[in-house]
Design goal:
- This protein is mainly beta and 123 residues long.
- The protein has a single domain, classed as q2cbj1_9rhob like domain (Jelly Rolls, Sandwich).
- Helices cover 10% and strands 37% of the residues.
- Strand 4 and strand 5 form a beta hairpin.
Length: 123
Amino acid sequence: MIDETIHVFNRYCFLGLSGDEFHLAHYPKGGHYKKHLDQFNNRSNRTISMVIYLNQDWKKGDGGELEVFFQDGSSVLIEPIEGRCVMFKSAIVPHAVLASAKPRNSLTGWLLQQPSALGQFLG
């Protein structure tokens, strides 16, 4: 699925993606992540952020939403429902994970312009 996603982005968006890095993310009850970008100061190869939610029986009110911020100051909340996939540009879309009322799980990763070992060092 990841290879096919990279192929589609490269074919239709001309992104030059050539790799990926993923991890299983677990947020305990009350876990959250403050507003940030998915790009390191000294490595600029993350192009597309991708989150696939693994939360069975998630209900409104369980929290743990992904908050995505827009340039006009508005934002949108995305519930972490099992099987939902969210993708956005890593270096330009600020986002946060809101506190959850129960443990929250996802497969989280990045589609890369270069393999992680070959990232561009800017400093």
